[in-house]
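User: quick one, sequence for these tokens?
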């Protein structure tokens, strides 16, 4: 495996295709989104009227729920398809706006009380780009604003690989089944680069899609160092349990102050 793939190679366009969106719509129910949003508000100490940047926002499920709680939300995603769906689904009351944009080149400065990066959406680029993303988040925040970041735990993946049976391939396999539909993730790990190669299969109503991508996994100390270099302080790693066993795999949540 190439330890230094380019930024674009790590994020295939098909990550945002209709098959993948259909699966996430099934898994991330309104009830689950409400639990996640309550955690974001609680952990970020957010109050009604605060301005929140949600990026990448996907189809807007977190952004819409935050807006329903009284927050003023801007959702940004580089997928025009996701933004199209986010706008179509925005029927509930609340102050939320969606626009196409790239979290690698944000043009905001001291505009937001909080930035949310949720749903394991950090680590898809090279290390330099990840650093630029964190710096862009810092610029977008007002002094004292909060970054709320959810990512996949390097320690969890490493422990799961160590626990696999002897003489088996160096991958862990996670299977999620919903009424006969399937998502199967095969995850490896390259300790030299800190990257986890993924092969993902989704089967819905007999139709099959395959995705291949790599995700940079950070140890807590490593991520804390990168956050400090971007200008953050008060970095805390938070309890991550969600009341749904389908969504506990390797969840690491981080809170940092601008």
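Assistant:
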């Amino acid at each position: 495996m190439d330890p230094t793939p380019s930024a674009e190679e790590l994020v295939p366009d098909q990550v945002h295709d209709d098959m993948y969106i259909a699966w996430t719509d099934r898994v991330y129910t309104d009830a689950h989104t409400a639990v996640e949003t309550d955690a974001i508000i609680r952990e970020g100490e957010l109050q009604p009227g605060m301005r929140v940047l949600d990026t990448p926002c996907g189809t807007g499920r977190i952004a819409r729920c935050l807006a329903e709680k009284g927050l003023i939300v801007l959702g940004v995603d580089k997928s025009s398809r996701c933004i199209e769906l986010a706008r179509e689904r925005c029927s509930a009351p609340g102050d939320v706006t969606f626009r196409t944009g790239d979290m690698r080149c944000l043009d905001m400065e001291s505009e937001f009380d909080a930035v949310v990066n949720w749903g394991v959406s950090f680590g898809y680029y090279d290390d330099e780009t990840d650093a630029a993303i964190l710096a862009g988040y810092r610029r977008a925040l007002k002094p004292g604003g909060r970054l709320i970041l959810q990512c996949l735990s390097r320690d969890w993946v490493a422990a799961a690989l160590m626990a696999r049976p002897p003489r088996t391939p160096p991958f862990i396999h996670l299977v999620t089944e919903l009424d006969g539909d399937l998502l199967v993730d095969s995850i490896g790990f390259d300790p030299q680069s800190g990257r986890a190669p993924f092969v993902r299969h989704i089967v819905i109503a007999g139709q099959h899609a395959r995705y291949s991508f790599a995700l940079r996994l950070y140890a807590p100390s490593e991520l804390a160092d990168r956050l400090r270099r971007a200008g953050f302080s008060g970095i805390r790693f938070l309890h991550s349990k969600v009341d749904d066993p389908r969504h506990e795999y390797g969840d690491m949540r981080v809170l940092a102050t601008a």
